[in-house]
Amino acid sequence: QVQFVESGGGLVQPGGSLRLSCAASGSIFSIYAMGWYRQAPGKQRELVATITSEGNTGYTDSVKGRFAISRDNAKSTVFLQMNYLKVDDTAMYFCNRVSIDSRAPWGQGTQVTVSS
């Protein structure tokens, strides 16, 4: 069964940058659209960025122009470059397949905290 391991989170000041990584194992990676999700305390998990198997990307409005998703199929890894971070970006970040039908168990996530 596929497993996702997220990394790269941390504490950063507003306006700063972080690069998240998500390594997948246990299944074919390249054929699936992948997404980065985040969940802030007391809020529902939301999808913030997606990338298809062909490399087409999509973003929720709140992160457009600041976040960039990419993937390395050879390494079964998906990345999220986050620039101009805001306090509202504070959340636990997860990766997973986009399709609900192929959704895998959630990993532990990586915490991003934006604070001065």
The stretches of 5 or more residues where confidence is low (pLDDT under 50) are: none
Number of strands: 10
Lateral arrangement of strands in the main beta sheet: 2-10-9-4-5-6
Shape: globular
Helix content: under 10%
Spell out the helices and strands N to C.
EEEEEEEEEE
Radius of gyration: 13 Å
State the end-to-end CA separation: 40 Å
Residues in β-strands, percent: over 45%
Largest sheet: 6 strands, mixed
Arithmetic mean pLDDT: 95
> What count of helical segments does DSSP give?
0
Summing up helix and strand content along with how strands pair, one would put the structural category as mainly beta
In summary, what is this structure?
This protein is an all-beta fold. It has strands at 3-7, 10-12, 18-25, 34-39, 46-51, 57-59, 67-72, 77-82, 91-97, 110-114.
Written account of the structure:
This protein has 116 residues and is mostly beta strands. The chain contains no helices and ten strands. The chain has a six-stranded mixed sheet, with no helix packed on it. Strands 1-3-8-7 form a four-stranded antiparallel sheet, with no helix packed on it. The radius of gyration is 13 Å and the shape is globular.
Topology:
Layout (H helix, E strand, L loop, with lengths): L2 E5 L2 E3 L5 E8 L8 E6 L6 E6 L5 E3 L7 E6 L4 E6 L8 E7 L12 E5 L2
Parallel strand pairs: 2-10
Antiparallel strand pairs: 1-3, 3-8, 4-5, 4-9, 5-6, 7-8, 9-10
Output the keywords.
116 residues; mainly beta; six-stranded mixed β-sheet; four-stranded antiparallel β-sheet; globular
